[in-house]
Amino acid sequence: MTTGPAAAVMSILICCCAVIGPTLSCRISEFACKTAGGGCVRLDEYCDGKYDCPDQSDEPPSCTACNRTYYGEVGNSYRLTVKKQQKERPFLCHLSFTASGQEHGDFVQLTFEEFRMGTLYLGECVGGEMQILELGRPYVGGSWCGFGPTEGSAPAVYYSEAGTVTLTLRVPYNGLYTTPFTFDLRFKFLDNRHASVRLGTAADPKDRGELVPGTHCSRNFYECYRKRCSLQSPNYPGIYPRNVTCRYTVRQQVVPKCKYAMVSLSQRRGALLQQSRSRPAPKTNGTDIIRVNDMCSENEDRLVFHDGSSEDAPVLLRFCGGPVLPRVVASGPQMLIVFKSWEHNSPATFSSPMPVSRLRSFELNLQIAFVDSDSLDYVKGPVCEFIINSSLSSKSRRGVLVNPQHSVPPNSTCTYKFQGQLDDRVWMYFESYGHRSTSNFLTFKPCPTRLRIWDGAGTLLGDHCDTPRLCEHITTPSNITGQKRPCTLDESYLSKTPSVILQVHSVLGTVLEPFGFKLHYEFVDSSVYDHGESDDRTCVIDYKVSKSIDITEPRNVFLYGRGGAKSLDCLYRLQAEPGYRMQVVMRNASFGWRECGTMTKTATGKYSCPDDDGPKLIVREVYWRTVKIERGCYCQNFTESALSTQHVTFDLSSDIVEIHFRIPGFDVTEDFTNTFFNAHVRVVRSPPCPRKQWVRGSGGEIELVYPLESRDDLHCHDKPWLLEAHPGHSMFVQTWGNFLPVNMSVAPCKTRNRILLYALQPVRLIKHVCPTGTRDNRRNIYMFSDEWSNFVPVDRQDPSFMVEFLARETGSMAFKWLEVSKPAVKHASSSTSPSNNNQSVTGNRFGCTYGCPELNACISATLWCDGHRNCPSGVDEADLNCQTKWPSFKVLRSYGLPVVGLGLAGVVFALLAWIYCRREPEYKHYDEPEPATDNTRSCSTIAS
User: Membrane-crossing residues (predicted)?
Assistant: First the structure.
């Protein structure tokens, strides 16, 4: 129930209605002349100083326009003037205007054409005031005084919210002679169809929020992302009442999945004054300023924006005047905007020409901004702090940060903490960075926005009030193809520890001093290569493999084009523990845009690459620490399913394996996201090979029978044999079969077994043999080391071979080797001396004491007549050459029984040695291979 001054005003309105009630012949918006048939005149023509009724009843003596209720019709404009009647008495006048609906309108427009009443002094009305009261709204007090409009400006306009509005004009006794009094008012009655500025149009209506019951102007807004929400000052677009407090609460309750909502307010059209629609608002210039925060005094109107739904939430901005309100964005789905108008004001404030740095009627566009819920675009707690942790996933090891997409309160610090793994380094560079004062706002702060970057060890990497190091060229304009160059260390920041702290401190807050940046960050694995310590981009990674692991490309950007590298050459060295071997499965690889010629299948059924400088992914086995055999090579993008498992699976016999990844000619945008590989390494238990298969001696023979029977063969059959000759000698190998093309996995051969012969320095396959299984002399194959037939400098000679058996089906394979040398050149003057009586007759024919004439090669004397056919022709075991080695009858008769006894002892010793060699040897492990000892034929060089 309304009490106090409001009740008195309502009583006067009722009395006036009873006295002036319309007659049957006049409408409610007209005054009935008293004489019958006198007609009707408009209500504003009553007591206007002119006779409008024929009987002059509209101008009775001592009449006044006060204490009356005025009606009107839509489309008409009315005007009234109030004059003081008695100067010696206090003056009180009530003017009521009622829009009764339909053709009589829905609300009232009041235009104060001339207003002079009292004085506004130090925020208080002195010597007269005007109060405005609307029917159905709580009484709030407050008053208008002073003068208006100013010269050359439009008058102030008031638009009612309710259908009835009452003006109370009051001049106290002390103001009768101190201030002038003028009140000239023009008024209209409007319907809602013409209130498009306030309510929008039928096609595009405005949601002004829900009025909170019991309040004058507080409103609640919900779900503004579905509709056009407009936050308006009371009685918008006209002047607003005095001494009101409006609380506008915005809540977004429905949020799409994986999104986060933030409330945003802006004023695109600037200050919308109480002007007619035909007179646009004056344009502002760039020198106009706004008044905010500590520039606002307590006795002026203001808007306060809270980052939350209560007044205890942080204040983003206090705004008390200016041409444009800066954009304000809450950090969450709720925002409270508190509007307070001071108790007293002058209409001149609302009628002065632009610019005036005072708050006027306003309309704010209310929107809802959505960001990803898992992003770092917003603050997730009461403190502006962001934690960026690295993990093994590529998504978390690299990213782009931007400034918070919401407003930050004044005197706030936003902290970004980067925390990597133990071997990580943090690399960051700004693609863009800037801060600026809001248009129409002037600041004299020496460093309104300060950026500081610390290394985790406490070292200050950067302290900037202006622009930090920038790498702007990574943003390529649309009309330029390709990025020019990568970011350098002079354009970025690289830590020496796994952590970095970045802080941005804003003195004024980001509403007034917006700062924006786009920061690229990356956690760089320095265990492979530490760019901060060395410019040598070497990449060697050692693994002690004790369990199954996955191996991938190095995740260090400085080894790739995006980090400034020209090419990548990375070597992975894997070593299994004793008693184990490894199985490697190459799951996939990508070489980017690069393609090699054609990958061909080798004799082992794996792929090989062209001999060029193109991209390669190579798998090698390492024997005897230095001898490396290439088991497979890839130079085209592939997956395990595309090539089939058998072509990407390597069952390796060595305990040391190398994977070599090489990429030439990087683009500046390439990194490990488009050039990569993935290999899976399994550990398989396998007893070590008990015998040394690195042999050096005068000659020997190796035979492998499949299926395997002896324990030595079971544990050693898949390991190669290294045959090495002494300096000054060459190596000869003999086997039985026929040659096949070197790089062909499918070739005409009756067996799937193979013998592979490699040359060393460098290791390369030179012979691919299809074995016969029998020692058919018609299928003899001879091979010499390179220096035998070709000139090779002494320092580059390598008289050695490596032989590998590929046993895939039942059968046998064998080969012999000899350490050979070339015969001496015979001179014509040479003659046979008595000391040569015991030499081979055959050997003397071509310059060797002991040799193989069919090879034109000399062999060791220890192989002559040793009971084994070492020469392919068997000449070293011919009776003619071996008969001088047996003792004569005269010798036996001279020495008698002692010689016979010694002979029998020798036979017994030989028998025992033969039995010892036939037993299976005990397992031994050789940590480091040693050069093989000289031998001609022993258990360690014969396997069958």
Answer: 895-917
